[in-house]
Amino acid sequence: MAFWKQLILSLIVIVAGFAAWVFFVPGAGEMMRDAGIPESIVSRIAPKAEETGDARAQGQQRGEGQGEGQGQNRRNGGGRNGAILVATQAVVQGVVNDRLNAIGTGDAIRSVAVTPQASGTIREILIKSGDRVKAGQVLAKLDSEEQVIARGQADVAVKAAVEKSNLYHNIKSSVSRMDVFDSEIAEQGARLQLQAAELNLARRNIIAPIDGIVGIVPVNIGDNVTTSIPIVTLDDRSEILVDFWVPERFSNTVSVGQPVEAMSVAKPGQMFSGVVEAVDNRIDAASRTLRLRARIDNSSDELRAGMSFSVSMKFPGDKYPAVDPQSVQWDSQGSFVWLVTDDKSHKVRVSVVQRNPDFVLVKADLKDGDKIVTQGLQRVREGGAVRVSADVAANAEVATQ
After folding, report:
1. Handedness of CA 357, 362, 368, 373 (dihedral sign)
2. What value, to the nearest 5°, has the Cα angle with vertex 207 and ends 201 and 211?
3. What's the whole-number mean pLDDT along residues 16-41?
4. Is the separation of the CB atoms in 221 and 124 below 8 Å?
5. What DSSP character marks residue 1?
6. Residue 291 sits in the same domain as residue 176
7. Residue 397 and residue 88: Cα distance in Å, rounded?
8. How far is CA 319 from the centre of its chain?
9. If you average pLDDT over every residue of the chain, what do you get?
């Protein structure tokens, strides 16, 4: 048989089969509507099948048992009167989780490397590692014999200058005013020399400039030290300063006084609270980050300078509608969800803002309590009739709670 004859015969068979299905299968019109066939075409075909009616088909429909009717309902999507059975979940308000995590290094709120103010040999060390000292406390002493002698000489010079000045004042009538003035100048000079000698002697004592805790003492008695050699380090760790760097996008969000939480590697699971102490005035051009400094209370003395910290900050986020992740669908135009209103399904376009484990935050024309289809999405159509499953909806509500 020629090919064109086979093609014509095949088309005749297909048309005949379709006509038989339209006229003999109950509910064919509703199925065509669900398939997306325009109503104008369905109205021309389906009513004719109902008017001519096939008695055998109608009798078969009336004679179907309850079990077969339930099977037909399942084939139609579980709906009643052609409605699609779906599960929904109410829209809730969600907040964009804007959380910052960074790694920083701790330092004592005040730390001083103590160096002597004069060169000399260490004669005495009065502290040891771990001691708590007060500002003004003597930490160590240098040899001071030469300075003691210089102070004695200055003291004798002062006494001599005072006696001479007093004598000239008593015999003003026999000496010139210039001699009296010179004696007063000599007395003042001698007193200044005495002050210098006392200062040089006092500098033989190495004094703590701040309250703090003594570190390891690197020198010993008998060591010859200069003004550039540290004798010991003092740390005031009543509070810890943590420097950390944040991405550039947070530069207009962070400010002094914002709360921070820090966890030390040495104290896993234990959170320490603090605030932002300082914000740098520029972005690092190489890393595109901003330097921050947080101040953390350490009254319990559990933290040490130099520790590594995991720092986190929370920021108030914008509110968006939150929907179930399963409800977000995609087509050629982007993402959307099915909104159920008056037992009808409607497509609502959404823009995904943030994905969380339990919800997806979207930007859309949705409000709290709107019913969004989460199950049965395959047969849902625009404006189609839907029936919400009470059992599945109840389970979904319990799950969200």
Report:
1. negative
2. 160
3. 68
4. yes
5. -
6. no
7. 9
8. 17
9. 82
**pLDDT attached to residue 80:** 52
153 shares a domain with 126:
no
Kindly report, residue by residue over 139-189, the tens digit of the pLDDT. Answer: 999 999 999 999 999 999 999 999 888 887 777 666 677 777 888 899 899
pLDDT computed for residue 232 by the predictor: 94
CA–CA dist 372, 366 (Å, integer): 10
* Distance (Å) of CA 157 to CA 109, 188, 343, 364, 389: 47, 11, 111, 93, 109
Spatial neighbors of 317 by CB under 8 A, at least 6 apart, are 95, 96, 97, 98
Residue 22 confidence (pLDDT): 67
Element (H, E) at 131: none
Rounded to whole angstroms, how far apart are CA atoms 267 and 303?
Answer: 9
Closest among 329, 376, 384 to 352, alpha carbons compared: 329
Q: Are residues 46 and 169 in the same domain?
A: no
Q: Is the CA virtual torsion 177, 182, 183, 188 positive or negative?
A: positive
CA-to-CA separations, 116 to 123, 132, 136, 144, in angstroms, rounded: 13, 19, 14, 13
Name the token pair of 186.
């000599």
Same domain for 125 and 53?
no
Query: Does the global pTM surpass 0.85?
Result: no
Element of type H or E holding 121: strand 120-125
Q: How far is CA 278 from CA 47, 244, 284, 307, in A?
A: 79, 11, 16, 19
Range list of H helices, 171-280: 177-202
Q: Give residue-wise pLDDT tens across range 85-141.
A: 889 999 998 887 677 889 999 999 999 999 999 999 999 999 999 999 999 999 999
Domain shared by 339 and 382, yes or no: yes
In the numeric block, the tokens 């376009």 are attached to 349
Amino acid at position 153, single letter = Q
Last residue of a domain, one of 259, 289, 316: 316
